[in-house]
């Protein structure tokens, strides 16, 4: 059984600092969850109620390191968002414009720093390398 951490990658005030579609994905689409072994994975908030056989490609992803979160979200945006029948069309319509919006692009460092600020850390579980959650004070 996995646990919803009631967290998103989104942080207040990132609008205008990063690509608008990234803000929408971080705020509205991607949930942070934790397995019973303590590993973190990310999941589409719109189709998380479906059984595994009914999910579109890349509905969940679990990068091994925090530095891999940005690339994993880009794959999620490329493969899952267009294929997921449950993500609202107005979100899907943002992707072509946002990918052309060079001014709002963000570095991978921002993604790393914001994940770290949320308490995500590089760690290990029984299956090897993984991202873990460490409560921040």
Key attributes of the depicted protein:
two-stranded antiparallel ribbon, 6 strands, alpha+beta, four-stranded antiparallel β-sheet, 137 residues, globular
Write the layout of secondary structure elements.
Elements: E1 3-7, H1 20-29, E2 30-34, E3 40-44, E4 60-61, H2 69-83, H3 89-92, H4 94-100, H5 108-117, E5 120-125, E6 128-133
Antiparallel strand pairs: 1-2, 2-3, 3-4, 5-6
- Number of E-type strands: 6
Based on secondary structure, the structural category is alpha+beta
The overall pLDDT, averaged over residues, is 85
Distance between the termini: 26 Å
Q: What is the number of helices?
A: 5
Kindly provide the radius of gyration, computed on alpha-carbon positions and rounded to a whole number of angstroms: 15 Å
Proportion of helical residues: 25-40%
Note the beta-strand portion: 15-25%
Could you give a short description of this structure?
The protein is of the alpha+beta class. 34% of the residues lie in helices and 21% in strands.
Question: Would you write up a description of this structure?
Answer:
By secondary structure, the chain is an alpha+beta fold. Helices cover 34% and strands 21% of the residues. It is built from five helices and six strands. The chain has helices spanning 20-29, 69-83, 89-92, 94-100, 108-117; strands spanning 3-7, 30-34, 40-44, 60-61, 120-125, 128-133. The strands form two sheets. It has a four-stranded antiparallel sheet with strand order 1-2-3-4. A hairpin with a 5-residue loop joins strand 2 and strand 3 (40-44). The longest helix has 15 residues, at 69-83. It is globular and about 40 Å long. It starts with a strand and ends with a strand.
């Amino acid at each position: 059984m996995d646990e919803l951490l009631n967290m998103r990658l989104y942080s207040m005030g990132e609008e205008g600092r990063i690509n608008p579609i990234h803000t929408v994905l971080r705020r509205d689409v991607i949930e942070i969850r934790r397995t019973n072994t303590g590993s973190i994975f990310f999941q589409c908030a719109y189709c998380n109620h479906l059984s595994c056989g009914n999910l579109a490609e890349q509905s969940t992803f679990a990068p091994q390191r925090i530095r891999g979160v940005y690339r994993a979200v880009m794959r999620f945006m490329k493969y899952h968002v267009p294929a997921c029948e449950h993500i609202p069309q107005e979100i899907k319509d943002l992707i072509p414009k946002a990918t052309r919006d060079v001014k709002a692009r963000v570095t991978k460092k921002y993604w790393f720093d914001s994940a770290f600020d949320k308490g995500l850390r590089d760690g290990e579980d029984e299956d090897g390398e993984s991202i873990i959650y460490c409560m921040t004070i």
